[in-house]
């Protein structure tokens, strides 16, 4: 299976888990249901091809249903209501209440991965596992310092500052685009492409640092670090970590 197919497979799994309704029910005419049907068809074929048995796919389906039940225990409606009312005065109570619950929900993926593992080749499973690992990392990013990333993203002074950097950020993106093409495979990146990834991140970081909004880089790092470890770049380069600048008010 190609690396792109694996990525699309993971996206399909995400759609499947969040889709409203039973995964085994009749097909809907909605786009989401069509995508779920396509995902299930592909999974059934892979389970059969990789195990030589018809038993792996029902086991996978059972793991998904259990994962959905696990996630359903989280009160998403109240979470959204409380999030809409979030202020600096309520942030400590909000994150103390919801972060343990979010961590529990993030762990719901583990059973699904276990059920999926027999259906995938080893290399493909490693990619899906790495992408799924973004979920708990995202929870920790949101919960860090009682949601400091959320408050940075809503700070008008910082947002006005970053708005002045749009042209510079575009230059960052253009520089990495010049080293990539439609046939680029993350498992076969060239040294030039590896350098491009590092330089792109550093370029973005410099612009965010200047506006004291560096924590937003953590969103990019969720994907960068997960995929970077699967590239040849990881053999010769330390995976970059987010370094926060001083959070004093802008002057």
Automatic annotation (TrEMBL):
It comes from the Eukaryota. Keywords: Signal. Residues 1-21 form the signal peptide. Pfam families: DUF1397. This is Putative secreted protein.
